[in-house]
Every structure is written in C-alpha cells, then in structure tokens.
Amino acid sequence: MKRHFLFLEMLLMSICMLSAQPIRVACMGNSVTYGYGHRNPAATSYPTQLGKMLGDSYEVRNFGHSGATLLNHGHRPYTQQQAFHDALAFAPDKAIIHLGLNDTDPRNWPNYRDEFIPDYLALIDTLRAVNPKVEVWICRMTPIFHGHRRFKSGTRDWHAQIQEAIEEVAHLSGAHLIDLHKPLYHRPDLFADALHPNAEGAEILAQTVYSAMTGDYGGLSLPAIYSDHMVIQRDKPFVLQGKANAGSKIAAQLGKEKQRTTTASDGTWQLTFKPRKATREPISLTVTDGDTTIMRSNILVGEVWLCSGQSNMVFMLRQATNAKENIAEALTKEDLRIYDMRPRVYTDAISWDSTSLERLNRLDYYIPTQWQALTADNAPQFSAIAYHFGSMLADSLDVPVGIISNAVGGAPIESFIDRHTLEHHPELVDILTDWRNNDRIQPWVRSRGAQNIKLSTNPLQRHPYEPCYLYEAGIAPLAGFPLRGFIWYQGESNAHNVELFASEFPALIDSWRKTWNDAALPFHFVQLSSINRPSWPHFRDVQRQLAMQIPHCEMAVSSDKGDSLDVHPRDKRPIGERLCRIALHHNYGYTHLIPSGPTIRSAENRGKSIVLTFDHAEKMHSADGASLKTFEIADEYGFYYPADKVEIKGNTIWLQSKSVKRPTRARYGWQPFTRANLVNAESLPASTFEIQAKE
After folding, report:
1. 179 is in which domain, residue-wise?
2. Do 142 and 34 belong to one domain?
3. Could you tell me if 553 and 653 lie in one domain?
4. What is the pLDDT of residue 14?
5. Which of 307, 233, 298 is nearest to 272 (CA)?
6. Alpha-carbon distance 526 to 503, whole Å?
7. Dihedral sign from CA coordinates of 377, 382, 384, 390
8. At what angle do helices 498-515 and 536-549 cross, to 10 degrees?
9. Cβ distance 197 to 191 under 8 Å?
10. I need a labelling partner for 350 at 20 to 30 A (CA). Which of 42, 61, 433, 482 fits?
11. Residue 318 falls within a domain, yes or no?
C-alpha cells in the first residue's frame, strides 16, 4: 500500500511539473539589450545568453529597441516603441530594464533631465499594472568610453548624472538595482564603437544579471592578496573583503577576534577587524559561509608597502651589484615577506602569441602568486630596490615587513592611473584616445607596444603600456588591502614630455590614495638617475618640484649612481636604503635621521654673487674630496656660465662667475649624465636643480 501511494505521489508531482508555466523574464532596453553590432543578435544578445543560464524553467525574451530613450520627451521614447507594448503583453514575472544611454544625447538630457525620474517611475508602474507581482530590476548603465564622439562634449558628464538618477529610481520604486557598469568598465576592448558591447561583453552582462536574479556568485571567495603567510598592516583596522552568494551569513575569525556579516545583494561582503600591534607570533584567519570554509595560516602583523614603477624597480637582486652577497643576506631575513606580482609575458622586443594576447584582454597579465618568505628560488628574482628598502625597514623597526611588488619594465605612468581619473582630468583625458598613435605617449612606448601585439587581429587589443591597463590588472586587485604607503621608481618612459608628466604624476598619487581611501598615504619615489639623454635635467627638476608640492610625498636622489650608457644602473642598495631613510624620518618618527642630501630651499642675489640656501645641509662637502662641480650662474639674458667660485658657508653656498655681472639664476648638475658631487654629513647627494634668484 505504501509503495502504491508513493507511486501516486510521484505521478502527481510529474504532472504538476509538466503543467507548470515557465517564469516569464522580460529584458527591456535599448540597443545594448537588443544586441546591436552582433552578427547574430538572436544567438548572442545578453537576453539569449541569460536564458541559457537560467534554464528551461524560465522563458526569457528580448524587448530591446535600438536608440530608445527612457525620457518620454526624448527623441525616441521606449514607451512609444512596439518592443515596450510587446513587453506589456508578455506580462512578465520578472523584468530587467536597461535604459538611459540614449538619454545622454544633447537632444534629451539637457532639455528634459527633470522628467527622467518621474518617467522611469511611471514605466515601472505600468509594468506593475499588468502584473502586480512582477519583480523589477533596473540597471546602472553599461559604460560609454572615451572613443565616443560626444564623450567630452557632454556624454561623459550626463552619463554620470543619469547613473545617479537611476539609483534614486531604484530607491523610490523599491526595484532591485543591477550594476552593469562595473563589470565592463575595465573592458574597452569589448566595445568596438565605445558604446555597444560585443558578444563576449553580452556574456558578461548575462552573467551579471543571472547572479543578481539568482543570488549565485559562485560561493565564498577571497582576493588572492589574502593568502597564507601574509603580513597585516599594524595599527590600522584590517579590512577583509570577499565574495559569496547573496544573503550568505559570513563568519570570520582572525586570531581570537570574531566578526560576522551578511553578503549584500551584489555578492560582496566586508569585515573590519580591530587594529593590532606588530607581532612575529603567527596567527590564522578562518572565513566561512556555512558551506565553504577558507583558512589562511602563518600570518604576521607589521608594516606593508607597495613598490611599483618600471624597469629600475623591476631590476632583480641577481642583476645588481654584489648580487651573491645580497642574496645570501636575503635568505637570513626572517622578518621580510614578499608578494611578487610577475608578468606572464615581458615587454621585450618580441611579438606575443595568441594565447598571451587573449589573456591580456581579460586583464590576466600577472602570474597568480601568494605571500612568501624569501627563499633561494624567489630572492634572486625579486626587485633589488624593494628588497633593500624592506630589509632596512625590518631591521630598523624590528617588526615583520611585507613588500608587494608589481612593477613592469618600460611602463609609462599613465598605465598605472585609473580610468575615471584620466577620463575626468582636463589635461589627461585625450591620452586615452588611440594610444598606439597618440603623440602624448612616448614614441618608444608606442613602438614596443605595437611590436608586442603585432600578431593580434583585434583593433582594440590591450597592452600593459596602454593607459589604465596596469591599474586595472595590477592595482585594482589590491584595493582595500591595508598598507602603510607606496614606493615608486618610474619616469624613463615619460621623460619626452615633462609638461604632461607634471599633470600625470599628481594624478597617479591621487588615483592610488583614492583607491585606498586615504589622502595622506605616503608616496615616496626615486628621481631619475644620470644617463646621456638630453631631456633628463628638466625632467629631474620637475620631479624635484613635484615632491615639494605634493603632501606626504618625498624624493630619493639617484643621479650619483647613474651610468652614462645604461638606463639600469646596477648599484641598487643605496637607492633602496635612501627610500627607507625617507620613510623612517617622515613616517616612523626617526626625526634624528637625516632623510636626504642637501635640499635647495632658496636663491638670493647678492651683488655679483648668488647665495643658495639648503635644508639637510649639515657639513656639506664634495663626495670625492675635489672641488664642488657643475654649479652654473645665468646672466640677465638667461645665458649660463660655470661658477668659478663656489664657497660653502654653513647651510649656504655662495656662487660667482667672472662672466656674469648681474646673476639671475643658478643651476646644479644640469647635464643628462652629471658628475655633480655635493653631499652632506651622511654622504647623501643633493638633487640637481635650477632656481630663480630673488633680489
């Protein structure tokens, strides 16, 4: 009898399943929803791909109409199109609405912006009238990139304003909000016309919508930077963030401290642990969502710095002066741990294969890594400057130190700046346009990039030298991981345009500080050294001036360690240690430690003499015991002559030249490769400089 009833129960369930109606999903919107630009929109549009992801229990239909506006007074209102009426007739159970892109047209938003929110609310109300139980998601718009012909004339700004209006509509209407902007903002290669994503972009949209509808974000995960053996920044809250399915209950324990939270609807979660004191006693981290548990062990608490830039920061310990001794020393540094982000392919003079090119487009440029102690395998490959900085810091502070390194040889500064900063910077926005033929970018950079991607058939092929790329591939994945500050050595690939660099450098620092939400994060950098390249004296001087202008930014001099023929001087230890002296003095309270060589403060005209006043000028003298070299004085016409009288008086230097009766300016070390020799009591070199004399 029991078996009989079980059979009947199963039969009834089967009949119910067969007779159940699929859940109706209406994808409403403009050309992006329709699949404009696809060879076969019926097969590759995001609604089609969404339907495959959701399965047979859903009926997904595409109600996109190219050119449609949300505004009823727009040039092509969606509510007046057949697609909208068909969507109403479909009486959807769930509706996904992506509108607003065409409202950025100058015919629309400037004239009718005040009607946008009421019109959107009315559209949602109309949907609810045909099916009171309909569940509505409205979407933050997909990106419009800099290549759009109206980007700077209004579209960029109106797009941002409409995004805010859409968020307000979600709040007022109670509709769910899906962010279609974030997952595609770092993929301009998927937008042939800067507006419409291709089939691969549509797949990303479909996955984003699928996750929002189902809450499925692939379960619990952590960013790679949170690995075994990591170093946690002391004396700062430790922010732990990750992904999990929507609504998941997250429980985490760091050492003995426990924290809990619930995953947001977009799959994100974040926990903040209390600040900790430095310790060599390893602690562990456990995170669980109830189904999956992630454990991280052997965690130390100390100081964390990010070291980045181009080839002189990449320059490895095994390549540097006294490599054998330094590597042996590194293996004894138990307090030093590294997170070494190394490229999959180097920007050597080669053409990359198709697999590498595809990975680059997906921002899969760095080889997956984790925190490690220094070993015989990894120490020789690690950045020499980053190592010497971290080694001296650990020894001086007597705490664990973690060094993150993600420098890339030849990289220009613009590749490390985030897209939003460049898009909204009046002097830098044009650097985004056609980077391979953009004369704002150094010719060598463009030439090497073109050589690397020569075999690509994609006109929008990405490259690490492209503006924003290294930020998106190498900086964004670290965002939020607490650290003390940044170390930077770069400029060789931007020395052709010092005026542009003067805008780019502050933009880089601002970009990174905003990424870590801390406007006071220290940023210390290396001034370019000496080599026979004509533009370098001017470039070094602009670097010097920028260090004086930007808060919490200091410069280490390297011109005394240059090589007239090699852009990669081998003696890296002094440079790393000069950076460390700066950090110790400015960031750790070692005020007794002189942070740098003599630093020019002012110049004053005293008859036939110019008097230069310096900071950090204790016991100024020549490095080699000879007379001071490379000081020059300019006459009233701006012509420079060597100073034939150079006299140190306390913290000042008095200059005269027989050829100059009325001196107006002075400069020092003003040669591409200079033998300037002014140092202070700590044998730290003065920066090269040019300065106007005051009367």
Report:
1. 18-214
2. yes
3. no
4. 43
5. 233
6. 18
7. negative
8. 40
9. yes
10. 433
11. no
Q: What is the pLDDT of residues 8-22, one digit of tens each?
A: 344 334 434 444 799
pLDDT at 695: 82
Residue 511 located in a structural domain: yes
Residue 607 within any structural domain of the chain: yes
- Pairwise CA distance, residues 145 & 685, whole Å: 46
- The tens digit of pLDDT for each residue in 339-394 reads 999 999 999 999 999 999 999 999 999 999 999 999 999 999 999 999 999 999 99
Q: Do 480 and 571 share a domain, yes or no?
A: yes
Rounded-to-integer distance, Cα 26 and Cα 90, Å: 8
Q: What is the pLDDT of residue 201?
A: 98
Specify the residue for token string 């009486």: 91
Alpha-carbon dihedral sign for residues 533, 538, 541, 542? negative
CATH value at residue 209:
3.40.50.1110
432 and 384 inside one domain: yes
Q: In whole angstroms, what is the distance from residue 493 CA to residue 447 CA?
A: 12
Residue 26 lies in a domain: yes
DSSP state, 694? Answer: B
Rounded CA-CA distance 673/321 in Å is 20
| 582 and 607 co-located in one domain | no
**Separation CA 667–CA 634 (nearest Å):** 8
CB contact at 8 A, 151 and 179: no
Average pLDDT over residues 487-511: 98
185 and 70 in a single domain? The answer is yes
* Structure tokens that stand for 404 in this block: 């993150």
One domain for residues 148 and 192: yes
Q: pLDDT by residue (tens digit) across 616-626?
A: 999 999 999 99
Shortest CA distance to 589 belongs to which of 230, 235, 232?
235
Question: Residue 465 above 90 pLDDT?
Answer: yes
Total of domains in the chain: 3
Would you call 7 exposed, middle or buried from its count of C-beta atoms within 10 A (0-12, 13-18, 19+)?
exposed
Q: Which sign, positive or negative, has the C-alpha torsion 227, 230, 233, 238? A: positive
